[in-house]
Write a structure and sequence with these properties.
single chain, 346 residues, alpha/beta, Rossmann fold, 2 domains, five-stranded parallel β-sheet, 38% helix, 14% strand, binds phosphoric acid mono(formamide)ester
């Protein structure tokens, strides 16, 4: 399989047919029916934020199929990078994307970038000053791609996480077979931090790309980006699916075949995290995925992108049950990474 696009910022950059092609390719690689050729290919992986699955899936895919992945962490083992236009670089940044992107992309065949302002480790306070609208422009990856000479993959930005979405789609096809007519619930979960909306946006598209009947279950005040909702609606309705939003937990779980949980921060409270924490405090217990809620479904399986906080987002009983698909979902990060890397470099 070959992808013509030079940018995979979200699965909206490719057609539904190409999404289906990548899922088929990933499943064929997984089963040994297809080979992906990454021989002598080099992938640069620029991680501004921590990662387990994304980094290891890409590095493992490159290594297994004859290529090599080089991961770097800006500011820790490289220079600090700048992407502003006409900026006077007298601060803490040493290299501009106007040089960085062509230099890296003359040495490598494909580049992956993770840069999300809301991902933090070791602190409950996100260090964010910009508005969501400003951060959702994902300026660094867009500017990098502007000056890049090879394909650029988004490994999670402020707005999208397409590699997670593709792994989720692959997992649902694997477990459900025909996905049209199946009910997919993306449920908000309480979390001590204000997490990014990139993953739920891409998970929403993971089901929309498959033409599923999608329900976004979330409290008032935690709506996803309206442009993303509109794009997801258009994709799923074009294939006979549907999209609805509700705050009614019982109605949402009822009849579901897939329950995907994700915590995300409120766009209404963006940057006012202490106010958000107060507003969501009463929601803490009610929104946990537990066996009582799963019992309302049509034998649904449970998905989560991981890492997950046990007994905060989902109970041990659900996570450790046969209905949990989280390990298969994480494994599919490898096969979808191999498919994407192969399709972009062939
Ligand atoms: N789900 C996911 O992207 O995991 P990592 O943050 O560990 O890469």
């Amino acid at each position: 399989m070959r992808l013509e696009t030079k940018r995979l910022f979200s699965t909206l950059d490719i057609s539904v047919e190409e999404v289906r092609g990548l899922i088929d390719f990933a499943r064929s690689i997984k089963s040994g029916r297809a080979k992906v050729d990454l021989f002598n290919k080099v992938c640069a992986l620029i991680f501004f934020n921590p990662s387990v699955r994304t980094r290891i899936s890409c590095e493992s895919a490159m290594a297994r199929y004859g290529g090599h992945g080089i991961a770097i962490s800006p500011g820790r083992d490289t220079w600090n990078f700048e992407c502003g236009e006409r900026v006077v670089m007298d601060g803490n940044t040493q290299e501009h994307v106007r040089e960085l992107a062509p230099v890296i992309t003359r040495m490598c065949h494909v580049v992956g970038i993770r840069k999300s302002e809301l991902i933090t480790v070791g602190s409950d306070k996100a260090d964010v000053t910009g508005s969501y609208a400003e951060l959702a422009k994902d300026e660094f990856i867009h500017r990098f791609a502007e000056f890049a000479e090879v394909p650029v993959i988004n490994l999670e930005s402020n707005r999208w996480h397409p590699m997670q979405g593709l792994a989720d789609s692959t997992t649902m096809v694997e477990k459900l077979g025909e996905t049209r007519g199946k009910k997919y619930v993306l449920t908000w979960a309480w979390h001590p931090k204000s997490l990014p909306v990139a993953t739920p946006h891409s998970q929403l598209l993971s089901a929309a790309n498959l033409g599923m009947d999608v329900t976004v279950l979330r409290p008032d005040g935690w709506a996803l980006d309206p442009e993303v909702m509109a794009a997801a609606r258009e994709r799923t309705e074009a294939q006979g699916g549907s999209l609805q939003e509700t705050a009614d937990i019982g109605a949402a779980y009822s009849g579901a075949q897939v329950v995907c949980a994700k915590a995300w921060g409120s766009l209404d409270y963006y940057g006012r995290f202490e106010e958000e924490a107060k507003a969501k405090a009463p929601l803490r217990k009610e929104w946990v995925v537990d066996t009582d809620k799963m019992a309302k479904t049509d034998n649904a399986f449970f998905m989560h992108c991981l890492p997950v906080r046990r007994n905060i987002v989902v109970t041990d009983d659900v996570l450790d049950s046969n209905s949990s698909a989280v390990i298969d979902e994480a494994e599919n990060r490898l096969w979808t990474a191999a498919a994407v890397l192969g399709a972009l470099t062939s």
